[in-house]
Amino acid sequence: MECFLKKIKEMELIDNSIERGQRIVEKAVLITGGSAGIGKALAKIVSEKYKYKVLIVGRNEEQMKDIVKECSNIDFIKADLSKADGIKKIVEAVSQRNTKLNYLVNNAAVQNLSLLKDITEEQFDESMNVNVKAPLMLVKGLMETNMFEKNTRILMVSSSSRYNIQKGMGLYSVSKEAMFTLHKVMKKEYAESLLISSVYPGTVYGTKTAKGMEASKIPEIIELRKDMKEFLSSNKSIRILSPDQAALFISWVLCNTSDEEYIKPKLARNFNDTVINEEEWDIRDCEFYINCPYKDGTKLKQLANFLGK
Ligand SMILES: NC(=O)c1ccc[n+]([C@@H]2O[C@H](COP(=O)([O-])OP(=O)(O)OC[C@H]3O[C@@H](n4cnc5c(N)ncnc54)[C@H](OP(=O)(O)O)[C@@H]3O)[C@@H](O)[C@H]2O)c1
User: Is residue 113 scored above 90 in pLDDT?
Assistant: First the structure.
C-alpha cells in the first residue's frame, strides 16, 4: 500500500512538472561568464557531477561551442552583459527555452586595472555595467518574466578586492563593493522568493583576470604582484587555486548546502583584518572547513584534502 501511494505521489509530481513544461528532477542553472575561467569550470562540474541543465553566457562563441561539444547538458547564450540589449537577449532566451531556473550564478566580471588618475569613462562604464548593473538587471528581468523557481539560489561571485584595497585595482574594488551592497539589498527585497549568497574564490591562477594582472605594466600593480608573491610564500595556509578547485568549492556552496546554510553561511569568518561576515563564503583558509561543525563537514574535509591542505 505504502509503495502504491509513493508511486501515485511520483506520478502527481511528474504531472505537475509536465504541466509547467519541465522535466522532473532536472535542475537548471544559468552561469554568466561561463565561457572561460572559473565560470567554465563551474559549468562543467554542475553539468557532469550534478547532471543539471546548464546555460552559460558569454561573448566568445567559439569557446562556448567547444564547451557545448564536450558536455551535452550545457547550452550557451551569446550576449554582451555590458549592454541593455544583451540582458534582454538572455531573458528572452531563457523564456523561449521554457526553462525555469533553480540557480543563477552572477560570475562574469571585468577587471580594468588603472590608477584613478588614468581611468577612462569607458573603463568605468564597462566595470560597473558588467559587475554591478548586469546582475541587477538580470535578476529583475528574470523575476518579471517569472523564470525563477521558488527559492532559486542567486550566487554572486565576489572578490577579496572588495575590501582589500590596492593601488591600480580601485575600479574593480568599487564594483565588487557595489555588487555586495546589491547582494544585501536583494536579500531584503527578494526575501520571499530568492536565496542569495556571495562567494569568494580566493586567488585563482590561469584566468583572464589573473593574466591581466601578470601582464600589467602599471608600476603599482608590478609592486603589488611582488608583495602578493612574498605574502603567499610566507603564508603556506593560503593557496593559489586552479579554476577547477575554485569551481569545486563554488559548486559545493551552490548545490550541497541546506537553504539555511546557503543564506547564512557559518563557514565564513573574519580573516586578518578583513570584513568577511556571516553572509559570505570564503575559501582561502581550509583549516576552518576541517573543523566545520556542520552536517556536511565531511564533504568539506574531503574538499580541504583535495585542495592539498
Ligand atoms: N581569477 C581570480 O583570481 C579571481 C579571484 C577572485 C574573484 N574572482 C571573480 O571570479 C569571477 C570569474 O573570474 P575569472 O577569473 O574566471 O574571469 P575570466 O577568466 O576573466 O572570465 C570572465 C568571464 O566573464 C565574461 N564576460 C566578461 N565581460 C563580459 C561581457 N561584457 N558580456 C558577457 N560576458 C562577459 C567572459 O566571457 P567572454 O569573454 O566570452 O565575454 C568570461 O567568461 C569574477 O567575478 C571575478 O571577479 C576571480
Answer: yes
Each residue of 204-242: pLDDT tens digit?
A: 888 988 889 889 999 999 999 888 888 777 766 666 788
Ligand 1 centroid distance, CA of 19 (Å) = 37
Among candidates 96, 105, 52, 49, which has minimal Cα distance to 74? 52
Using the atom order of ligand 1, give the atom closest to the CA of residue 106.
45
- Ligand 1 pocket test, pick from 30, 208, 213 with the greatest ligand atom count within 8 Å of Cβ, gives 208
**Ligand 1 residue neighbourhood (C-beta within 6 Å):** 33, 35-39, 57-60, 80-82, 107-110, 130, 157, 159, 201, 203-204, 207-210, 243
Count of C-beta atoms within a 10 Å radius of residue 304: 20
Residue 6: the pLDDT is 44
User: Residue 76: which domain range?
Assistant: 20-306
Domain count, the chain: 1
Instruction: Give Dmax over CA atoms of the chain in angstroms.
Output: 75
Residue 249 has pLDDT above 60, yes or no: yes
Give 299's pLDDT tier (boundaries 50, 70, 90): low
Q: Which of 106, 107, 213 to mutate to test the pocket of ligand 1 (most atoms within 8 A of CB)?
A: 107
Q: Is residue 8 part of a domain?
A: no
Residue 12 lies in a domain: no
pLDDT digits (tens, 9 = 90+) for 169-186: 999 999 999 999 999 999
Q: Is residue 14 in a domain?
A: no
* Sign of torsion over alpha carbons 88, 92, 95, 97: negative
15 in a structural domain? no
Run of H or E including 118: none
User: Which CATH number goes with the domain that contains 31?
Assistant: 3.40.50.720
